[in-house]
Amino acid sequence: MKRVTAAQLATALQQQVACCYLLQGQDWLLLDESRQAIKAAAKTQQFDEVLPLAIDNATDWDALYQACQSRGLFSDKLLIILLLPDNISQALQKKLLHLIGLLHSDILLLLQIPRFNLQIEKQTWFVALNEYAAQQATGAVLVNCQTPSLEQLPAWLQQRAKILELSIEQEALQLLCYSYESNLLALKQILNLLKLLYPDGKLSYLRVKACVEQASLFTPYQWLDALLEGKTKRAVRILHSLQNEEVQPLILLRSAQKELTTILQLCANDSAVDSSQPLPTQQLRQQFDRLRIWQNRRVLFTQAIRRMRYVDLYRLLQKLAEIERQLKRDFDADVWPQLQDFSLLFCKY
Question: GO terms for biological process (predicted)?
Fold first, then answer.
C-alpha cells in the first residue's frame, strides 16, 4: 500500500485514482480536504454514486453488501466512504473482511480511521484489502491526516503559502506557527485573509502581526509531551490554553498519573534501590516492547527518565496525589495553580 501525506494526495490523484484509500488521523481539516479531493477525482472516473456511512452498532451491513452486489450494466460506479471507529472489534473485522470480498472495479472504497498501527496492519481484513489492491492496476493508498507537529508545521505552512502565491518572511512564519499551532483550519483562514489584504503576496512580520489572533488549540497529550521533553515554557503555555478552553483538570490529573505510572513500570526494579539513584535506562527497549509503548513516544519517555531520580518520580506522584485529594474534597476547586507547579517541577527534573 502506497503511503502519502495529505499534502501529497493531490499529486497522487493527478497521476491515477486508486481502487482504495485509507485516511488515518484526526485532523478535521486534513480529513475533510482529503475526502473532498478523492470524491472529486473519483467523479472524473465516473464514480457518480456516493455512499457515506459512519460505522456504529446500528449500521445496516446487509444493505451495504446488497449495494455492492447489485451493480448492473447501467448502474453508476459507486464510491463507498466508511468512517471507522477507533476500536475495530473482532465482529467489525469480520464484516470488513466480507465487504472486501465483494469489491470490484466499479466500487471505490474510502476508509477513514482515527489511528493506524501495526496491530491493524496484521488484521485479516487489512491483509485481504492489501491483496485485493495488489491485484488491481491502480493499487491502494494510505493518507496520513495527522496534525503536523510543531517541527513539521513550518514546512506545511510554507507549502500552503506557495499554493496561494504568498511569500512569508521567516519571523512572520514563526509568528503564524506560534499563534495557530494545532489549528490548521484557523491557519488556512488567516492565509486566505492575508491573500485578500495583500494582493502583492508579500507577508512581512508587521503585516502578519496586524492580523493574527491567538487561536492555538492544544490537547492534554501535547501538555504531557512537553512535560516529558522538559520544555517548561511550552508546557505552561499549553496548560494555560487548556484552562482557557475549560478542560476539566481531572482529565489532566489522570493523564499525568498514567504517564508517571508508565515511567514507574519502565523503571521497575526487583531489588532495593537508593532513592537518590537515577532511573535506570539499560533495558528500556525491552520494557518499551513489553508495555507496547508507541515508537513516537519512546524518545519522550527516554528523555524524562534520563533526567529523573527515583526520589523525583515519587515527589511528582505525591504532588498529583495532593491535587487529587483537593478535587475529591471539592470537584470545582481551582487546582490550576497546583497543576502549573507540577508542570514546573516535572520540567525541572
Answer: DNA-templated DNA replication
Q: What pLDDT is attached to residue 277?
A: 81
Closest CA to 38 of 79, 99, 96: 79
What is the CATH number that goes with domain 153-211? 1.10.8.60
Positions of the chain with pLDDT lower than 50, given as ranges: none
pLDDT score recorded for residue 273: 65
- 220-348 CATH: 1.20.272.10
Q: Where are the alpha helices (DSSP H) in the chain?
A: 9-15, 28-44, 61-69, 90-100, 118-121, 124-135, 153-163, 170-179, 184-197, 205-211, 220-229, 232-244, 249-266, 284-291, 295-307, 310-329, 336-348
Distance CA 263, CA 149 (A): 23
| Phi then psi dihedrals of residue 99, to 5 deg | -60, -45
- What distance in Å separates the CA atoms of residue 120 and residue 24, rounded to the nearest whole number? 11
**pTM, to two decimals:** 0.76
Contacts of 87 (CB under 8 A, 6+ apart): none
Please write down the long-range contacts of 148-152, taking CB distance under 8 Å and 24 or more positions apart. Answer: 148/184, 150/177, 150/181
The residues spanned by each domain of the chain are 2-144, 153-211, 220-348
Measured over the CA atoms of residue 168, residue 172, residue 173 and residue 179, the dihedral's sign is negative
Distance CA 105, CA 96 (A): 18
CA distances from 176 to 182, 212, 215 (A): 11, 7, 10
User: Per residue in 119-174, pLDDT tens?
Assistant: 899 999 999 999 999 998 889 999 999 999 888 999 999 999 999 999 999 999 99
